[in-house]
Write a structure and sequence with these properties.
This protein has about 550 residues and is an alpha/beta fold. It is built from 15 helices and 20 strands. The chain folds into four domains: about 350 residues, Glycosidases (TIM Barrel); about 50 residues, Alpha-Beta Complex (Oligo-1,6-glucosidase, domain 2); about 35 residues, no CATH class; about 70 residues, Sandwich (Immunoglobulin-like), CATH 2.60.40.1180. The structure holds alpha-D-glucopyranose (GLC).
Length: about 550
């Protein structure tokens, strides 16, 4: 089937179902809730939805531990609710993509239960190894979530590999039967009418043969399973046997990847395996690789990452643009300023929405939600956060460790969406929501944002509408100015004589600003801004402007 590239003109909204909206009043978000909010999502200008996992799951990793790939969790409304959402989304010309989580399953998945018992054909569905000499673990890899990557199973008398939590055993993708299972899952959902997949840590699915030790223990084994030896073969197989038969989109998550490496997967042409890559470089401007290793925010690092991806992919591959998702704390709290929440929320939006690629907006980002600050670490829900709290930096005092988690935890951005100033932020009518509501909900909520024409929400609406109306955003060349500035991000996009100039301040201080050569604000049209006027030569805290001028 022809691959039309429809995704290049769309803006996606990411729903993390547990915390989006509770439609059946049991305290947890669900698809009935989504159904009621489709028009809200569409009103943002978003015409695609990526659903974080909706499948039945014990919830050890909030659904990223799948117990049944062909069904929808009854807590989210089951298949009935999903089909309704899909139908209603399509009626509104909104595409729907699922999360495909096949690096691992839940330990409750029947495949795993049968594999433990060595029942064929499931015996080799997972990565099992006997203990090494003197009871040593099969190798020195670490789990990304909790301790070592191996867990002993009494029933089978062997260790299994889990790159994530103990409840998420890794599938053995080298087994052709497992790959057939993946294809069945893909077909099942495509036949149901979904429009594509976000593929969870998909670059981890091929492990180096023999599972050797990583000689650099700090790398946690990553070099032995990320972009492994058969990755391109397997992704091409999925592409050839299933995906190429549908006009669907794929986006691959890869925690460690450069744009040049990404091109191996996404370069357009007959060998293309994936449409877009979810990279982490732009998500690491205030840390060393992951948020648990914090550094001061560096605008230069952020700009360099943005520009690298824009330039290297240009004309060859398509970018996936994002500032937030369910794995990272809120971006205003990280890269902007809580004090200048509204201004910096808008400047951040302008910083990424006019780049080339398909933007994703994570629930709550559009209303400028901030990080959650629990008083007690036991309030955390996330398996990774709790493990860190209990095992890392334990020499530091409790208070300091908690503060580090405020900055690092995925739960900082997983609290219920703040719909209104009513009880539980209007997220649920149940007495108690499944997860703590951020106590700033009376100041920050969708209803309030809706009423204020100058809110972050209404800025997103304008920016997305503008983006869609400008050819230069889809096709234009990208150029960065003021590269060395640590306080301003300035870039242009140019296509057939139409030029856009995006200027964003990332500073709490007012600053002098000289426009790039050849540009005079007098002859340019100001299309979007976050202050009521636009004086020449200076920028106020977190000011942003988008200009158009003809050459
Ligand atoms: C991805 C998901 C994350 C999940 C992990 C394991 O990184 O985005 O939420 O915990 O994979 O599936």
């Amino acid at each position: 089937m022809e691959h039309t590239g429809w995704f290049k003109d769309r803006v996606f909204y990411q729903i993390w179902p547990r915390s989006f909206y509770d439609g059946d009043n049991d305290g947890m978000g669900d698809l009935w809730g989504v159904l009621q909010k489709l028009d809200y999502i569409k009103s943002l200008g978003c015409d695609g939805i990526w659903f974080s996992p909706l499948y039945p799951s014990p919830g050890v990793d909030c659904g990223y531990d799948v117990a049944d790939y062909m069904d929808i969790d009854p807590r989210f409304g089951g298949m009935e609710a999903f089909e309704k959402v899909l139908e209603e989304a399509h009626k509104r010309d909104m595409k729907v993509i699922m999360d495909l989580v096949v690096n691992h399953t839940s330990d409750q998945h029947p495949w795993f239960q049968l594999s433990r018992l060595k029942v064929d054909p499931y015996t080799d569905y997972y990565i099992w190894r006997p203990a090494g000499k003197n009871g040593k673990l099969p190798n020195n890899w670490d789990s990304l979530f909790e301790g070592k990557a191996w867990q002993y199973d009494e029933l089978r008398g062997e260790y299994y590999l889990h790159l994530f939590s103990v409840g998420q055993p890794d599938l053995n993708m080298d087994n052709p039967r497992v790959r057939e299972e993946v294809k069945k899952i893909l077909r099942f959902w495509l036949e149901k009418g979904v429009d594509g997949f976000r593929e969870d840590v998909i670059t981890f699915i091929s492990k180096v043969e023999g599972l050797p030790n990583d000689l650099l223990p700090a790398a946690k084994g990553l070099r032995k399973f990320n972009h492994g030896p058969h990755i391109h073969e397997y992704l091409s197989e999925f592409q050839r046997d299933v995906l190429s038969r549908y006009d669907c989109v794929t986006l691959a998550e890869s925690p460690v990847i450069t744009p040049r490496m990404a091109l191996r997967y996404i370069e357009e042409g007959p060998e293309q395996e994936i449409d877009m890559m979810i990279q982490f470089e732009t998500a690491a401007a205030d840390c060393f690789l992951v948020e648990y290793l914090p550094l001061p925010f560096s605008l230069r690092r952020l700009k360099a990452a943005f520009s690298r991806w824009q330039k290297i992919l240009s004309g060859r591959g398509w970018n996936m643009l994002y500032l937030e998702n369910h794995d990272h704390p809120r971006v205003i709290s990280r890269y902007g300023s809580e004090e200048y929440r509204v201004e910096s929320g808008k400047a951040l939006a302008a910083a990424y929405l006019f780049q080339q690629g398909t933007p994703f907006v994570y629930q709550g980002q559009e209303i400028g939600m901030l990080n959650w600050h629990p008083r007690d670490p036991e309030e955390y829900e996330d398996v990774q956060t709790l493990w860190h709290y209990r095992n890392r930096f334990t020499f530091l005092g409790k208070k300091l460790r908690l503060r580090l988690l405020w900055r690092a935890s995925r739960d900082s951005a997983r609290t219920p969406l703040q719909w209104s100033g009513e009880k539980n932020a209007g997220f649920t009518k149940a007495e108690k929501p499944w997860f703590t509501v951020n106590d700033n909900y009376r100041e920050i909520n969708a209803e309030k944002e809706e009423r204020d024409p100058d809110s972050v929400l209404n800025f997103y609406r304008k920016a997305i509408a503008l983006r869609k109306s400008l050819k230069a955003v889809r096709y234009g060349n990208y150029r960065e100015y003021d590269r060395l500035s640590g306080r301003r991000y300035v870039y242009s996009r140019e296509f057939e004589g139409e030029r856009l100039l995006v200027i964003c301040s990332f500073s709490k201080k007012e600053q002098r600003f000289r426009a790039p050569r050849g540009f005079s604000p007098g002859s340019a049209e100001l299309l979007l801004q976050n202050y009521p006027d636009a004086p020449e030569g200076r920028l106020r805290p977190y000011e942003c402007r988008v200009y158009r001028w003809e050459r």
